[in-house]
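Hallway conversation turned thread

IA: we were arguing at lunch whether anyone had actually written out MORN variant repeat-containing protein end to end. Turns out nobody had. So, for the record, here is the sequence (201 residues) and right after it the structure tokens. Reply here if something looks off.
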Amino acid sequence: MNPKSAFLAAVVLFVTCQVSKAQDNSFQKVDDSAVSKPKSQLTYEYQYMNDDHSEGVEKSFLFGKLKTEIHFKEKGKFQAAQSYDTKTGRLIKTDTIVNFNKLVGTTTTYYPNGKPKEMEHRDDSSAVDWYSAFFEGGGRRIIIHYKNGKRDGNTTEYNPNGTVKETGNYTNDKREGTFKFFDVRGQLITSRKFKADKVVK
């Protein structure tokens, strides 16, 4: 996932709108036709929560339908963003962003039924430190831990009924130690020992 590019246009318009300095906390509407060509049919609304316009809410609309909503506070250092399907209105993705260019926190994507599909967490350096995916019914499908961009630590995969399907440890993106494999009832099928991603006796 790369949410950074999705908010580039919002950054430009955010800075432009800051210069205009609204006098109250009401929403201001900005038509993108005044600042960009060719026209993309996007419009923006801003609501500032303080006098220096470093905290508030930005909303973008496509043909009048809500597309994104960005909350910024702590003088612009923290933002939470939501992306929506403009046809159905459903939530597609949520992000936590620092300074609009450093991704820190959790990105979550959603199924059409509103339940989480995937979650990816980034540490203060913006590197992914864990990833989790879910079945459409809501049960966890897999969880993977990372270190320096590589799988590191325990990885567990689940069956749709919630029982463990496979579990084991990774070191520097290679299987290391004993991996266990289970059937859908949670009964152990077999276990294998790995060294640097190769099966050992």
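OS: looked through it. The chain has two domains: 1-97, 104-201.
IA: good, adding that to the notes. The mean pLDDT is 82.
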